[in-house]
Specification:
154 residues; YbaK protein; five-stranded mixed sheet; 8 strands; 5 helices; 27% strand; three-stranded antiparallel sheet
């Protein structure tokens, strides 16, 4: 299966591996994906869309075992406060559904911040843009494909 995120990554000449798994509406978490794929939950990163009071919407890519620290996310952008984007706004803004939101290839060009712990891994796993499909690539390649900045988010 090819998704917009995978097309973009491959068009940049980035080496990427894909892993498919059976997903369940009951648990769309990154930790569930990690368990099904036999990966360390700290290595499977999830994409959370947040809205800043000045900066507007942006993506936070954090380990599946962690939560976004909203104060740290606000610091990364210079916002006073950020809050999670309401779920009903996710698909219109990103083109992705909950449980399948990739930091690469969003419908609207959104800023992306990757938690600095990603650099502890040779490769990390993120959504390839659809439920049940992960892509594995280096943190720097993910940053290049998503025009991301590394920041302390957890």
């Amino acid at each position: 299966m090819t998704t917009n995120a995978l097309r973009i990554v491959r068009s940049l000449g980035i080496a990427v591996e894909t892993l498919a798994y059976a997903w369940s509406e009951d648990d769309l978490s990154a930790s569930a994906a990690a368990e099904k794929l036999g990966l360390d939950p700290d290595r499977v990163f999830k994409t959370i869309v947040v809205q800043g009071d000045k900066y507007g919407p942006f993506l936070c890519v954090v380990p599946g075992s962690a939560e976004v620290d909203l104060k740290k996310a606000a610091r990364a952008t210079g916002d006073k406060a950020v809050q999670p984007l309401p779920l009903k706004e996710l698909e219109p803004l990103t083109g992705y559904v909950r449980g399948g939101c990739s930091p690469v290839g969003t419908k609207k060009n959104l800023p992306v911040f990757i938690d600095e712990t990603a650099r502890l891994w040779e490769t990390i796993s993120v959504s390839a843009g659809t439920r049940g499909l992960q892509m594995i690539l280096t943190p720097d390649d993910l940053a290049r494909a998503s025009h991301a900045t590394f920041a302390d988010l957890t």
